[in-house]
Amino acid sequence: MTVPTLAPIVPDEREAAGFAADWRSWHQHRLQSLSAPNGFLAATALHWVTGEATRFEGLPGQWWVHDDWLYVDLAKSESLLFNGATVTGGQRLGSIAEREGFDVGHGETTIEVAKRGGRYILRPRHPQNPLLQDFNGVPAYAPDARWRVGGTFRRFAEPRPTRVGAAVKGIEHTYRAPGEVVFELDGATHVLTAFNGHTDGSLDILFTDATSGRTTYASSRSLHLEAPGPDGSVVLDFNRAVNLPCAFTDLATCPLPPAGNLLKIAVEAGEKIPYERSAS
User: Fold this and answer.
1) Is 188 exposed, middle or buried (0-12, 13-18, 19+ CB in 10 A)?
2) Rounded to whole angstroms, how far apart are CA atoms 200 and 212?
3) Could you list the pLDDT tens digit for every one of the 280 residues in the chain?
4) How far, in Å, CA of 128 to CA of 171, rounded?
């Protein structure tokens, strides 16, 4: 098949300036998202809930799972904010689907309750967490239109269950991959498995390349694609390749790229190794 490629989008200085300005605006929005008071940089712990009632340091109550339902038993002096209401005593909080979750409140702390790799987790987040307070942005390659290319989304006849590893040992994630993206770059044709994105029809690609572990984070980066056109056409702008939460904190359970999503070329675009990891 013929894979479409985008014509250069920087034929003159004026358009080059516009391209760079668009990227800077996107990058600034990205930094604002990362620095949210209850975002991933605010995470202070990662607790795994089991069938045994357990009290976790810094959190109220005893927590356990039974028949895929999450329970908490709060002492007389303890309470949580759940669905906008203050709750006390014993509570059956809910049954959660894989990769889903909800938040409960405890003072300034937001407790993320979620299911990852088939297991329930509690991930408290506090706006005064040092990782968030010391956040100083994310290093990235300068925007370059060479890394914005066209491609084609090839939809599978049926979504394919795709099992991948995780940043946390001992768990796996399973996604239903809707298809693959084919594109040309550096004179070669590349094929990457795509997962469904967070917005309707969009796609997310997890990948590594020859920069991984050198100038970019070793485990993975993520590239978001808008919904394919009627002919399957997509745009891959590697200038907007981002780090997953695990690049910043060990308290994340991020998925690893599926087998085959390794680009042999050096994609010198997008986010680099975070300052926090470079200093460690």
Assistant:
1) exposed
2) 30
3) 444 444 334 446 667 788 999 999 999 999 999 999 999 999 999 999 999 999 999 999 999 999 999 999 999 999 999 999 999 999 999 999 999 999 999 999 999 999 999 999 999 999 999 999 999 999 999 999 999 999 999 999 999 999 999 999 889 999 999 999 999 998 899 999 999 999 999 999 999 999 999 999 999 999 999 999 999 999 999 999 999 999 999 999 999 999 999 999 999 999 999 998 875 4
4) 29
One domain, residues 51 and 31: no
- The total number of structural domains in the chain stands at 2
Q: 16: closest CA among 139, 137, 148?
A: 148
Burial of 278 (0-12, 13-18, 19+ CB in 10 A): exposed
User: Looking at the domain assignment, is residue 5 inside a domain?
Assistant: no
Dist. CA 249–CA 189, nearest whole Å? 34
269, 147 Cβ separation under 8 angstroms: yes
Fill in the amino acid letter for 155.
R
Phi, psi of 152 (to 5 degrees): -130, 135
Full residue range of the structural domain in which residue 81 is found: 45-125
